[in-house]
Design brief:
Layout lengths: L2 H15 L7 H6 L2 H5 L23 H5 L13 H4 L11 E8 L9 E11 L3 E18 L5 E19 L4 E13 L4 E2 L2 E2 L3 E13 L3 E3 L2 E14 L17 E11 L6 E12 L3 E6 L2 E6 L2 H7 L4 E4 L4 E4 L6 E10 L3 E9 L8 E11 L2 E10 L10 E8 L1
Antiparallel strand pairs: 1-2, 1-21, 2-3, 3-4, 4-5, 5-8, 6-7, 8-10, 9-10, 10-11, 11-12, 12-17, 13-14, 15-16, 17-18, 18-19, 19-20, 20-21
Length: 397
């Protein structure tokens, strides 16, 4: 990672936490979007104005291998993340766990775990639950002179429930609820005690799938859907600090699955997701002073669709609605529902995060067991997300 980028990160973290030199370099890097979202220039990114961006980490190795897509697939227990409406079309019980060493290029022993399960209840729908955990490691707290005052552990977690139900044979709705807890530091800064941050978030999703239809005498199906996730109050770490909003994300997309032969042994799926952070800062004038603060979440949902200007650290730039979109595209090939290979591409505008990478993945199924693997190949050298590997284990009952 470039020295300039690290300096920018330190500045952003310092501002967010109202901190001083009492936190060492690693702890500062742990606070904010770098550790959680893996952005190479977080002041440019929409997530730069949100708290707990670990909620945006894609937990499913299948979707991760397909360019971070899944809102219109959502056909396993990880639908809780992609689109809870996808639970409605599932009639099985599934348990899955995903593990990833996060930002491996930093060698900071950070890791991410996601445990999820879903169960179908006849006449009711499908209910799922999840636990998300991000370990940020052990940090050293120091005073202004560099004297060590002790050590503390930093971590963030979320736990919640989701429910999907069918409105008709082809249309489903879903919703979810999660509790969020963020413990980044301990002690006090400037006479203010640093507290763990907490909040709650709600999800709302819709999924539509067509009946099977024929293309070149092969069966095919088309799906489309959207998901609005993490709608809730902001997170606050000190008594007088401004609350930072949750990373509310609007995601919509489509998928197309087609048999490549009449027997249905070989199948191909194409998927495409578009997502956007629904958070904004607004200008506030009080006593002749102009400041910026996070916009109310409900107001932001309606005010985040236009273009807006922001300072990227060098100059003021204007981002159109199209510039604010994060785009993923993926492809998956299955052989006889036993073996899958996947690939995809993920793109963000250079002034909106500038994440650009190719994803690769594979999957195996045998009896009630399954395993999925995904890998990120970044197009930028020394990118924090380079060589990130996710591994998911599945149990279908």
């Amino acid at each position: 990672m470039k020295r300039k980028q690290i300096d920018v990160l330190r500045s952003a973290v310092h501002k967010r936490m109202k901190s001083s030199t009492r936190l060492n370099t690693l702890a500062r890097l742990s606070f904010g979007v770098l550790i959680l979202a893996g952005l190479s220039s977080p002041l440019r990114a929409q997530v730069g104005i949100t708290a707990v961006p670990f909620l945006q980490i894609e937990p499913d190795s299948r979707g991760g291998g397909m360019g971070n897509t899944g809102v219109a697939l959502a056909d396993n227990a990880s639908a809780l993340f992609w689109n809870p409406a996808g639970l409605a079309f599932q009639d099985k019980t599934q348990i899955s766990i995903t593990h990833a060493n996060w930002l491996p290029s930093f060698n900071a022993n950070l890791f991410y775990d996601y445990l999820v399960g879903a169960v179908h209840l006849d006449g009711i729908g499908t209910i799922g639950g999840h636990i998300t955990f991000l370990n940020l490691g052990e940090q050293t707290r120091t005073d202004e002179t560099g004297l060590e005052l002790g050590r503390f552990n930093s971590y963030e977690l979320a736990a919640g429930l989701s429910y999907g139900f069918q409105l008709s044979e082809r249309l489903a709705l879903g919703t979810g609820f999660r509790f969020i807890y963020s413990s980044l530091a301990s002690g006090s800064v400037g006479g203010q005690r640093i507290n763990p941050g907490s909040s709650v978030g709600l999800d709302f999703g819709l999924l539509y799938k067509t009946r099977e239809f024929s293309v070149l005498n092969r069966d095919a199906i088309f799906r489309t859907g959207f998901n609005l996730s993490n709608v809730g109050p902001g997170v606050q770490y000190t008594d007088n600090a401004q609350k930072d909003p949750l990373p509310t994300v609007f995601r919509f997309g489509w998928s197309y699955t087609m048999d490549l032969d009449k027997e249905g042994i070989n199948t191909l799926t194409l998927s495409n997701d578009f997502s956007k952070i629904m958070a904004r800062n607004e200008q506030v004038v009080a006593n002749g002073d102009t400041t910026f603060q996070s916009m109310n979440v409900m107001k932001a949902l309606f005010s985040s669709w236009g273009s807006f200007s922001r300072f990227n650290g060098t100059e003021t730039v204007e981002l159109s609605l199209a510039d604010q979109l994060m785009i993923g595209a993926g492809m998956e090939y299955w052989y006889n529902n036993l073996f899958a290979i996947r690939t995809g591409y993920y793109y963000e505008h250079p002034e909106n995060g500038n994440r650009r990478f190719v994803t690769l993945g594979a999957g195996l199924r045998y009896s009630i067991f399954g395993v999925d693997f995904s890998y990120i190949y970044t197009l930028e050298e020394e990118h924090p997300l380079a060589d990130t590997i996710r591994l998911s284990l599945l149990l279908n009952l």
